[in-house]
């Protein structure tokens, strides 16, 4: 550390921890200091930097440093501030507002503060940084409006303010930013119309205004001199796009995103002149049939999204020579047969239309990963050709009129999501699934599948959703099912399963572990579909209908944080296994309409996340455990039609349930007494079951957890 003549110190991409030694300040000739990507939240510049007067470039990005931005800036000595040209502080955890170090950093060219937790407005002292070429402030919590004086920073080539909380409009002064190549204002709360001055940014390559509340009409004027534009994103605003039919897009344009801009009802003629590779015109109120020019104009497009319009008619019969890699046609009024597929297609979503006939037996799409055809009128058998889709990870054929057995596909190994619900499919659970060990989501509900649930189901260890309800499955539920440590949602209802509920339910570790909501969200994000983005996963719109609290709810998959076991309407016998009470994260338990006997487990009160509990229509006897009163989240309870007896426990939560008719949840149990039922407890009941007995059984969470740990 005595290398006083050192000019360039690059310690980036290591795992350095702790503070930097004071002696760093001895490197009086240092010009470049790069300590990026050390993932060290505790790194902070040491106090003694007085002599670092030669520093021109400082890079602390990707360290997740916790600290106040003002403290960091103020630790840089005057002489450094005057000299500094580049300051890269991206992706740390800096908090606070940018300090007012008026015109100190006058030589600064690059200032990157993106991906921190900065608050406050865009500070006025930036106006004096007249040499700035790059200003990156995206992904912070900045508020206030965009100051017009930013238009005076005429050296700017890149201005990125996206993903903040900015309000107001785009200043007309932005028209002066002649060198600007990147303008990203997406994901803020900006509104009003866009000034026509934007149209004079001749060097602009990338323009992103998406996901704001902009209004007004986009005309030729806005795009007049954008002769360098490659990518434009106007999605998710309240724009109306009204360009003359002879308008010509800049020849440089490669991708255009107009989702939810008002554009229809007719396909605007200028679309056919676009020579681009990516186009999103979803939710643009387009109506009617495809114009003649449509498929030839877009035969070189690799990404096309026309979802959520009212487009009708058939697809061209042969699409194999088209360039599409991702094609979204969801939620239109398309009819006719499914065409031959584009050779390079990786994602096809034709769900929610009126496609009919059968899935083509010559389905050739060697790169197809995501195939979504739900909610159409597709019938017949699933052809063997589906087995040739070796790269398939997501297949949704639900809500069609498919019949017969699922072909035995020996070629697919990567399926993560298989959704075949609501058809008339029959036969056993497809055996090829045992090779698809990355399966996370299996929904075969509302079909005519039969046979037993194979023991190999326990090998599908990543399974999170197993939905087999409304079929004709029979025999025991294999005990191997408890090997599914990721299982979050189990629905076997409305089948003919018999025998006992498997023991060792406590091995369902996802259900035993209390989850924080944030963790679900991260898991959904990590749960990537082979490199496709979260937005795409989201837009596939897979839904899950859930029976809970006596009502059917529809969950969007990405929101499906729901933890549930539904075994209702089977022929299960034996007792409710006592270790079911270790499923502390379970929110819904439905064992209704079986032939379960024995008592309700005493520790039921340990299932602290339980919101809905249905044990109705069984042969349960004995008393209702008083620990039930510990279920503070419970909002639905049904114990009706069993042989329960004794005094009904009472507690603040229990007493609020089912207020319109509190007796319904206990009806059909002749031995129950006390409020809310009308039978008075006899002196005996009151004595034995009421005070003495129930106080002996009082639930003690501490004992329970102690027992659990020992166990
Ligand atoms: C380096 O810096 C330390 C602390 O500032 C100082 O005590 C020491 O004398 C310096 N060494 C040299 C060689 O300049
Ligand atoms: C900009 O610099 C000038 C001259 O140094 C100074 O008078 C002025 O206050 C500065 N403006 C801001 C907003 O800091
Ligand atoms: C449950 O987990 C325990 C401990 O991991 C294991 O020994 C046991 O075999 C598992 N039981 C079943 C039925 O998988
Ligand atoms: C339990 O399942 C039965 C049969 O599927 C259903 O009718 C009932 O509403 C469900 N209970 C709850 C609480 O959702
Ligand atoms: C229940 O007991 C209360 C108080 O002892 C009495 O007033 C009521 O008539 C009894 N009801 C029935 C149905 O026996």
Automatic annotation (TrEMBL):
Location of the protein in the cell: Cell membrane
The protein's name: Leucine-rich repeat-containing N-terminal plant-type domain-containing protein
Gene Ontology BP terms: brassinosteroid mediated signaling pathway
Membrane topology: Single-pass type I membrane protein
SMART domains recorded: LRR_SD22 (SM00365), LRR_TYP (SM00369)
GO terms for cellular component: plasma membrane
Pfam families (alphabetical): LRR_1 (PF00560), LRR_8 (PF13855)
Naturally occurring in which organism (per UniProt): Aegilops tauschii subsp. strangulata (Goatgrass)
Coiled coil: none
Recorded family membership: Belongs to the RLP family.
């Amino acid at each position: 550390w005595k290398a006083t003549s050192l000019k360039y110190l690059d310690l980036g991409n290591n795992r350095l921890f702790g503070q930097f030694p004071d002696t760093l300040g001895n490197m009086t000739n240092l010009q470049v200091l790069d300590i990026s990507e050390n993932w060290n939240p505790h790194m902070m510049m040491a106090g003694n930097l007085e002599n670092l007067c030669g520093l021109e470039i400082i890079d602390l990005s990707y360290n997740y440093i916790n600290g106040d931005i003002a403290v960091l800036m103020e630790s840089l000595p005057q002489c450094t501030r005057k000299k500094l040209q580049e300051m890269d502080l991206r992706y740390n955890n800096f908090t606070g507002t940018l300090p007012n170090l008026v015109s100190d950093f006058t030589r600064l060219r690059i200032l990157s503060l993106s991906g921190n937790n900065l608050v406050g407005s865009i500070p006025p002292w930036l106006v004096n940084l007249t040499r700035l070429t790059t200003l990156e402030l995206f992904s912070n919590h900045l508020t206030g409006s965009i100051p017009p004086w930013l238009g005076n920073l005429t050296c700017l080539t890149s201005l990125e303010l996206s993903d903040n909380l900015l309000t107001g409009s785009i200043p007309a002064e932005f028209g002066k930013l002649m060198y600007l190549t990147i303008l990203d204002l997406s994901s803020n709360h900006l509104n009003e119309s866009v000034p026509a001055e934007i149209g004079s940014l001749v060097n602009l390559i990338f323009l992103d205004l998406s996901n704001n509340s902009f209004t007004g009409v986009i005309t030729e004027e806005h795009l007049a001199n954008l002769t360098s534009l490659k990518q434009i994103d106007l999605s998710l605003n309240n724009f109306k796009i009204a360009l003359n039919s002879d308008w010509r897009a800049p020849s440089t344009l490669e991708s255009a995103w107009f989702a939810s801009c008002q554009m229809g009802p007719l396909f605007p003629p200028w679309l056919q002149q676009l020579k681009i590779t990516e186009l999103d015109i979803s939710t643009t109120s387009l109506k009617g049939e495809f114009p003649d020019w449509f498929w030839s104009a877009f035969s070189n497009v690799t990404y096309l999204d026309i979802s959520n319009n009212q487009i009708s008619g058939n697809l061209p019969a042969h699409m194999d020579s088209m360039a599409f890699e991702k094609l979204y046609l969801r939620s239109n009024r398309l009819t006719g047969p499914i065409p031959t597929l584009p050779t390079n297609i990786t994602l096809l979503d034709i769900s929610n239309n009126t496609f009919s006939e059968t899935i083509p037996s010559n389905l050739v799409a060697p790169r197809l990963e995501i195939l979504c055809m739900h909610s159409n009128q597709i019938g017949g058998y699933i052809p063997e050709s589906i087995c040739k889709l070796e790269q398939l990870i997501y297949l949704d054929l639900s809500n069609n009129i498919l019949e017969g057995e699922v072909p035995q596909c020996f070629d697919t190994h990567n399926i993560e999501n298989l959704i075949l619900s609501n058809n008339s499919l029959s036969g056993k659970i497809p055996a090829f699934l045992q090779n698809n060990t990355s399966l996370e989501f299996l929904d075969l509900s509302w079909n005519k599948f039969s046979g037993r649930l194979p023991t190999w189901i326990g090998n599908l260890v990543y399974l999170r959703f197993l939905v087999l309800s409304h079929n004709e499955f029979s025999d025991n539920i294999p005990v191997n099912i408890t090997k599914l440590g990721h299982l979050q949602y189990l629905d076997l209802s409305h089948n003919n399963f018999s025998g006992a509920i498997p023991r060792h339910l406590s091995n369902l570790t996802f259900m035993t572990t209390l989850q924080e909501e944030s963790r679900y969200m991260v898991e959904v994000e990590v749960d990537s579909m082979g490199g496709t983005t979260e937005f795409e996963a989201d837009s596939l719109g897979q839904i899950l209908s859930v029976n809970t609290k006596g009502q059917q709810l529809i969950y969007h998959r990405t929101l499906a944080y729901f933890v549930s076991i539904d075994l209702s309407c089977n022929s299960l016998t034996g007792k409710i296994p006592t270790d079911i009470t270790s499923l502390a994260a379970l929110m819904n338990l439905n064992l209704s309409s079986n032939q379960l006997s024995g008592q309700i487990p005493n520790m039921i009160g340990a299932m602290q996340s339980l919101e809905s509990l249905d044990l109705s229509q069984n042969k349960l006897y004995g008393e209702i455990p008083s620990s039930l009163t510990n279920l503070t989240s419970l909002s639905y309870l049904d114990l009706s039609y069993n042989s329960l007896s004794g005094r009904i426990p009472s507690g603040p939560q229990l007493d609020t349930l089912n207020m319109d008719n509190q007796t319904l949840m206990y009806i059909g149990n002749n031995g129950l007494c006390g409020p809310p039922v009308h039978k008075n407890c006899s002196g005996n009941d009151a004595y034995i079951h009421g005070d003495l007995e129930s106080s002996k059984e009082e639930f003690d969470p501490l004992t329970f957890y102690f027992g659990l740990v020992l166990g």
